[in-house]
Amino acid sequence: MSSNETLLEPNERVLSTLNPDGSRRWLKPKPSPGTFRAARRIVAYLLIVVFSALPWITINGKPAMLLDVVHREFTFFGKTFLPTDTLLLALLLIILFIVIFLVTALFGRVWCGWACPQTVYLEFLYRPIEFLLEGTPGKRKPRKFVGLRKVLRIVIYLVISLHLSQTFISYFVGAHNLADWIWGSPADHPAAFIFVAVTTGLMMFDFTYFREQVCCVVCPYARMQSALLDEDSLIVTYDKNRGEPRGKKRKQTGDVQLPVLGDCIDCTMCVQTCPTGIDIRDGLQLECIGCAQCIDACNTVMDKIGRAPNLIKYSSERVIKGGKAHLIRPRIIIYPLILLVVLGAFVYMLSTKAPADVLLIRGQGNPFTTVVERQEVSNSVTVRVTNRTNAPVTYLLEIVSPEGARIDGFTPMEVDSNANEKRNFRIIAPFAEFDDGEVQAVVRLFDESGSFEIEKPFKLLGPMSMPKPQGDQP
Q1: At 459, is the secondary structure helix, strand, or coil?
Q2: DSSP characters for 57-75?
């Protein structure tokens, strides 16, 4: 392209954070005090406290939340899920997704504007520090020690990011383990040290540079909202019937007839305060996170000019178009029904889960061996026991059937809490009990206290015929 040629500009806005030439449009939203911002601040600080405290809270001697990926154990509010709980974890994920669908259908992107960590930390921790040190957008910036203020801001950001990354990793390794690592040498746990360093760097990059781009470009939730929302979902909307045509109010002079204008005076405060840089007056857009900053800004202006509040408000597209709100609609009925069924299945499976999981596995190598002298058949078996209780348990094993069978090589096995152990042993049965080379055995496993027992079937394999002992040959 020659220097005389001009870049082709798009016919419409591509993204709120992009200039027409494709360069980044840097946003410095002006905070707008109001009812919603005060409520969001309370919610945000409560969530920050919960996020920081949750790894230290214990329930039944276990962390309130621990995602131990290395040992494949996931603890939620005192209940530990093991690798054998695949179905329970799948149901838990389905419940989570259905709740997201239902909440979005009812309240729009309330998660993004009120509870998402990206919004909570950026709007109520990082940006307030920036405003304190470098001045609030729209107001006169401090002129003294400008460079020092910027350096101090970066240092504070680094400390906060380090705390957040350490708190984040505590959900995977446990808060107490992390505390020992913090006060120990990085050489003793290099992998954890590298992970914290990388996570801290990513958070610094995010909250210092990338910021609203996460919501506009990276997060897939904005793209999903077109499928999750409907005309009756609660969203941040602009009342065009009341606000248009917009324009500055002027006094009547002489006989000149001034046009009748709506309540919107085109002050653009709703745009200046938007953390993603959109103009809510253009309708619902994928960048809107439903934070209600524009509502607070517009209500402040309406109060100053003596107009009714809520020109911008939480409402639905159907209501704004003049229709009636429909609270009861197909998806609002279907989602709770599905949620009720899945939640019921989850609660039932969780409440009926045995205190131990027992699995009998056929031994490797030859499926069986024969003892001709005794007319017996021996099968190698491995038992794997997973203890789901909160204390170590000693398990015993006995044979129930067939008649005359016995267990050889098994000793009582002690299994720690939420751990599993394997033990190899042999089941020896008389050949007379076999029918066409097999017989169904039943093994009973129980604990020393007698509070738990379970019977497990196991098919014993053997020969179709047993040779006679050598001394019995004619």
Answers
A1: strand
A2: -EETTEESEEEETTTTEEE
CATH architecture group of domain 356-472: Sandwich (2.60)
CA dist list (Å): 16 to 146, 246, 354, 384? 29, 22, 54, 57
Chain-centroid distance of CA 294 in Å reads 28
Look-up: residue for tokens 């006060």?
A: 183
For residue 376, give the H/E element and its range: strand 376-387
Residue 384: what pLDDT? 93
Q: Give me the DSSP letters along 303-365.
A: HHTT--S-SEEEE-HHHHTT----SS-HHHHHHHHHHHHHHHHHHHHHHT--SEEEEEEEPSS
Within the chain, what is the greatest distance between any pair of CA atoms?
138
| 43-84 residue pLDDT tens | 999 999 999 999 999 887 788 999 988 888 888 887 888 887
Q: From residue 192, give the alpha-carbon distance in Å to each of 64, 137, 170, 206, 406.
A: 21, 39, 10, 21, 50
**% the chain with pLDDT above 70:** 94
Element of type H or E holding 427: strand 420-430
pLDDT at residue 472 is higher than 70: no
Tokens 């107001």 belong to residue: 139
pLDDT higher than threshold 90 for residue 295 = yes
**With contact defined as beta carbons under 8 Å apart, do 134 and 255 qualify?**
no
User: Cβ distance 394 to 413 under 8 Å?
Assistant: yes
Q: Which residues contact 289 (CB under 8 A, 6 or more apart)?
A: 109, 112, 113, 116, 119, 215, 275, 276
Helix (H, G, I), strand (E, B) or coil at 261: coil
Rounded CA-CA distance 225/74 in Å is 30
CA distance 74 to 89: 9
What pLDDT was estimated at residue 256? 60
Number of Cα atoms under 13 Å in the Cβ half of residue 19: 7
Report the predicted TM-score, pTM, of the whole model to 2 decimal places. Answer: 0.81
DSSP H helices in 206-272: 213, 221-228, 240-243, 269-272
Q: Where are the domains of the chain?
A: 35-81+116-211, 356-472
Q: Which residues pair with 74 in a beta bridge?
A: 67, 81
Q: Is residue 215 classed as helix, strand or coil in its secondary structure? A: helix
The rounded Cα 467 to chain-centroid distance in angstroms is 63
Assign 399 to helix, strand or coil.
strand
Q: Which DSSP helix (H) or strand (E) runs through 79?
A: strand 79-81
- Residues in contact with 31: Cβ distance below 8 Å, sequence separation at least 6, in sequence order: 37, 127, 131, 136, 273, 293
Phi, psi of 250 (to 5 degrees): -125, 155
Closest Cα to residue 40, out of 349, 398, 289, 319? Answer: 289
| Distance of alpha carbon 308 from the chain centroid | 40
Q: Collect all residues with Cβ–Cβ distance below 8 Å to 175 and sequence separation of at least 6.
A: 55, 56, 63
